[in-house]
């Protein structure tokens, strides 16, 4: 029994020692190992760009389409057989030129009949008026004669309106497109006889992101190149849409350009370039420095071998650079290669440094 008590006391002491060791010594060693592993973690190799104040003439690029200054489809308002056709394809016509005539024989007959009736009613109204002046007839009799004359004139005006609907006249000076009908064809208001285009001047339609709204305005000039042409054309912005398109978050612009030689064809694809006034102090970084995150844009700035995350506000975009409005300063080393695998406070090793350069200067 005494021996059993001795064994029990020894087992209790050993258990206590094991517990004390595990509680107060093993944890510190684990922490030490973890710290050593953390301190031994290799640095991530990165390339950086040194930010500087650039005196630049920033460019904004967009794509667009050439539009005719005016364009419309030519359709008759009345149905019938075509009795006159004057649609010179690809040729210039003046405003008001008669281009197409639908058979209006029925209306012309009605008009002739009404003209004869109006002549008779006019003579009758004149006689009734003279008799009224000498009290030869009552006022009611004269009013009936006048009402008959006015009714016939209204009917005549209506028939003349119907005759006008059988004609298609050029709504403005322009070029006639390819027509789809021939003499003797039966047409309805749903049939497009041809289209007419006013191509001097032409309009350039393009869209820009809403962030450029305050920078690009009516009166600014643009340069553009048309698909298939080597020439560089200049146009002036005449319209800025007062509303932002909610689907694309962009604003539509129209610029006007002279087209005396007829080189610019409606529907042609164009590349548009806009140049802004020179900014004396503007921060720009290469576009690859920007890391998009939820609701923000960040860059990594390297200092003393540590990459720190900075939230930035951006402005205009050029071909290779992006304007930084706030978030970094002149002289900061911004990571431009290797930034997408970095985390805040990560250790880095700069393997290549790129000094600031002139951005989009006029040649």
User: CATH topology of the largest domain, anyone?
Assistant: Helix Hairpins
Across the major sheet, the strand order is: 3-10-13-12-11-14
Distance between the termini: 106 Å
Order of helices and strands: HEEEEEEHHEEEEEEEEEEEEEEE
Fourth-tier CATH superfamily name of the largest domain: Helix hairpin bin
Number of helices: 3
Characterize the main sheet: 6 strands, antiparallel, barrel
The CATH class designation of the largest domain is: Mainly Alpha
Please bin the fraction of helical residues: 25-40%
Low-confidence stretches: 26-32, 34-38
Q: What is the overall silhouette?
A: elongated
Question: What is the residue-mean pLDDT, rounded to a whole number?
Answer: 85
Count of folded domains: 3
Structure classification: alpha+beta
Approximate strand percentage: 35-45%
CATH architectural grouping of the largest domain: Orthogonal Bundle
Write down how many β-strands occur, each being a DSSP E stretch of 2 or more residues.
Answer: 21
Radius of gyration: 42 Å
Domain Multidrug resistance protein MdtA-like alpha-helical hairpin: 105-154
Domain CusB-like beta-barrel: 204-277
Domain Multidrug resistance protein MdtA-like barrel-sandwich hybrid: 72-196
Pfam families: Beta-barrel_RND_2, BSH_RND, HH_MFP_RND, YknX_C
């Amino acid at each position: 029994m005494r021996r059993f008590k001795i064994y029990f006391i020894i087992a209790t002491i050993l258990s206590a020692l094991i517990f004390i060791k595990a509680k107060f010594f093993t944890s510190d060693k684990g922490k030490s190992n973890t710290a050593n592993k953390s301190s031994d973690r290799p640095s991530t190799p990165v390339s950086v760009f040194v930010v500087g104040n650039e005196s630049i003439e920033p460019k904004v690029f967009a794509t667009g389409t050439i539009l005719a200054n005016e364009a419309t489809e030519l359709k008759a308002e009345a149905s019938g057989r075509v009795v006159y056709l004057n649609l010179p394809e690809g040729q210039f016509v003046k405003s008001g030129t008669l281009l197409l005539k639908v058979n209006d024989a029925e209306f012309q007959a009605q008009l002739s009949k009404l003209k004869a009736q109006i002549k008779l009613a006019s003579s009758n109204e004149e006689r009734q008026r003279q008799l009224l002046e000498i009290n030869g007839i009552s006022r009611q009799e004269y009013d009936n004669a006048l009402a008959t004359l006015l009714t016939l004139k209204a009917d005549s005006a209506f028939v003349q309106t119907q005759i006008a609907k059988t004609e298609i006249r050029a709504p403005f000076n322009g070029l006639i497109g390819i027509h789809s009908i021939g003499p003797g064809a039966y047409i309805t208001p749903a049939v497009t006889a041809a289209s007419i285009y006013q191509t001097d001047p032409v309009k350039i339609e393009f869209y820009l992101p809403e962030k450029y709204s305050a920078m690009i305005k009516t009166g600014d000039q643009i340069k553009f190149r048309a698909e298939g042409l080597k020439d560089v054309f200049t146009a002036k912005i005449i319209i800025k849409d007062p509303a932002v398109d909610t689907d694309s978050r962009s604003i539509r612009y129209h610029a006007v350009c002279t087209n005396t030689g007829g080189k610019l064809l409606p529907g042609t694809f164009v590349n548009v370039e806009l140049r802004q006034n020179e900014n004396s102090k503007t921060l720009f970084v290469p576009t690859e420095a920007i890391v998009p995150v939820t609701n923000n844009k960040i860059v990594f700035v390297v200092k003393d071998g540590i990459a720190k995350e900075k939230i930035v506000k951006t402005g205009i975009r050029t071909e290779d650079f992006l304007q930084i409005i706030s978030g970094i300063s002149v002289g900061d080393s911004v990571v431009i290669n290797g930034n997408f695998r970095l985390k805040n406070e990560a250790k880095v090793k700069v393997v290549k440094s790129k000094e600031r350069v002139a951005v989009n200067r006029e040649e």
